[in-house]
Design goal:
alpha+beta; 2 domains; three-stranded mixed β-sheet; three-stranded antiparallel β-sheet; globular
């Protein structure tokens, strides 16, 4: 006796990520003619199951493409292939940025192995250091950080993190049932565990020799009280391991954030030597003869700031060091700007150098 089939089976992870893609604004199509491509009109085409590797999945493919969109920004939804040139090597460093971001996001949920890429870029993924964002002079790092800041904004939020959390829950439930036969490649769910959060509640950092006491965002407090963390906004113990946002002593020459896109104007007082010694860098913004002096801007950055160009080193793009040509005569506004302060953190976040 035949029966009427009223439903179809879909892999639970596929359901999760197809739903996440739809919530972000993408319709997923499958085709053997493409590995992964977007048309700039809301369709994401992923290779059919027979074109994918045995350690790949539709879920991982969608996740990777959403990471591309995070790196490229909101406007990339209207461009084919997220606006990337997939023919030459000019955009390889942007792929590296995507993989760094993917590694950090997956790591928050213990999914680094489960969601590892299976393309030719797997070698890059496997060679990433424990902290994929450690080298802040690498342009792919700052672009990855900028992408991480977009995770909490529409159209990605809350769909992306909800999908990652659901994936972790599914894999965690399946992991105890994994059995591996001799001569058969082990399941990606084998040995899975969800990482515990940092004591501050922030995501945990890599298991390497880092402590809160060595972090640039730790600051002392008066009266013998425990130091506080500018990132977490709470007291910390110097012996705690560093969280995901841990950074070493800040290098202004690798940063320049306070002098570029982060702040739009730097006030110059009547007593600042720069007015007389370097008048070519000072402008009067005061209306109707009422003086209001500021440092001159060159586009989105201070005209006195040099550096920040991208230098090609093979497939890598490195940022040249920053410097101030009026440093000895800089105004008091600049002199009072403290490295490691709350304003410093704000500036670095705005230019993609700090989480």
């Amino acid at each position: 006796m035949s029966r009427q089939v009223t439903h179809r089976y879909v892999d639970p992870l596929t359901e999760v990520w197809l739903g996440a893609a739809a919530d972000v604004g993408l319709r997923v199509a499958r085709s053997a003619a493409a590995y992964a491509a977007t048309d700039g009109a809301g369709t994401l085409t992923i290779g059919s199951d027979d074109t994918l590797d045995a350690d790949d999945s539709l879920a991982q493919m969608i996740f990777h493409e959403l990471c591309h969109a995070l790196v490229q920004g909101e406007a990339s939804f209207a461009a084919s292939d997220w606006g990337l040139d997939n023919v030459g090597d000019d955009d390889v460093w942007r792929e590296h940025a995507t993989l760094r971001l993917q590694r950090v996001l997956a790591g928050r949920y213990g999914l680094e192995a489960f969601f590892a890429p299976t393309t030719d870029f797997r070698a890059f993924w496997d060679a990433l250091p424990a902290d994929p964002l450690a080298d802040r002079r690498d342009a792919s790092v700052s672009h990855a950080i900028a992408g991480l800041h977009r995770v909490g904004r529409p159209p990605w939020a809350p769909a992306l993190e909800d999908a990652l959390a659901a994936t972790a829950a599914i894999v965690a439930a399946a992991a105890p049932f994994v059995r591996t036969a001799a001569g058969v490649a082990p399941s990606l769910a084998a040995g899975f565990r969800v990482p515990a959060p940092h004591p501050t509640g922030l995501p945990a950092g890599p298991a390497i020799d880092r402590r809160c006491g060595d972090c640039a965002w730790r600051h002392a407090t008066a009266g013998g009280r425990r130091p506080r963390c500018r990132q977490a906004g709470r007291a910390v113990d110097d012996a705690w391991p560093g969280c995901e946002r841990w950074e070493p002593t800040l290098d202004c020459q690798a940063c320049g954030a306070c002098c570029r896109e982060a702040y739009g104007a730097v006030a110059v007082s009547a007593r600042d030597l720069v007015r007389t010694r370097r008048p070519d860098f000072v402008v009067d913004r005061g209306p109707g003869g009422a003086h209001r002096f500021e440092l001159r801007r060159a586009g989105e950055r201070c005209a006195a700031l040099t550096g920040g160009e991208l230098e090609a080193h093979g497939e890598r793009r490195a940022v040249t060091p920053y410097a101030c040509v009026i440093y000895d005569d800089r105004p008091r506004t600049c002199r009072d700007f403290t490295t490691g302060s709350a304003h410093c953190l704000t500036a670095r976040r705005r230019v993609g150098l700090s989480l």
